[in-house]
Give the backbone structure.
Amino acid sequence: MWNYNKDVMDHFLNPRNVGEVENADGVGEVGNMSCGDALKFTFKLDENGRIAEAKFKTFGCASAIASSSALTELVKGMTLEEAAKVTNQDIVKILGELPEEKMHCSVMGMEALQAAIADYRGESLADNEEHDGQIICKCFGVTDSTIKNVAKTNNLHKASEITNYCKAGGACGACIDKIQEILDDMWQAPENQELARDAGSFDKLSIVQKIMKIQEIIDREIKPLLEKDGGSLELVDLRGNLVLVRLQGRCASCPASNVTLKNTVEEKLKEFLSPELKVENC
């Protein structure tokens, strides 16, 4: 049983805007029922060119229903230019959080919105280089362009993370190595170096700015992982490159706490902020 928060459960049990807009201006259909998830998103514009009505029909789990419901609420009142900038992270923000393994549901919502906007404009998502490309995951029909787009939007560096966000590699697993190669090449490209991690910039930050950055990564990337197993983490202090934390919940008494500190906490801070950072429990 997934540990959903109250906002996700509310959108799941009381979904908003279920159905299909009559005489819709834009229709977007993504996913495939044979793969376990499918979503149809429709919208209608008002006389000022803003989204006045948005509805969805989905075949999927609680996360898919909640993400779709949140999406319809999010885009109401937006212009198409504003809606085109909506990412899956914006959907997750409405919900508070989603289990990492269910992030692909928020991505499906983003893609359905993009497909509906393309439909209104008389375009095809295949005309967009972010959705075109070579199919890497044959099981789910995911292209290299989609993998790169999802990775950039969500700052993903590992193939297992890509699986969580768009299912690629989640069936037979034959494409896992290829997905990792794509990620490694993408983040090593000069134009993506700053997006991946700029250790020099982190070193130039003030102590207060560094602490704020560390807290941001803890809240966004680390705590959700620990909370799945009943644990948590508190930032205590920063002394040079040494990050002092206090493990809480089940993590505090877990015999593998040192492994958690090194393989999860320290590695995430190194990945997103600086390879010089070290972590200790106090």
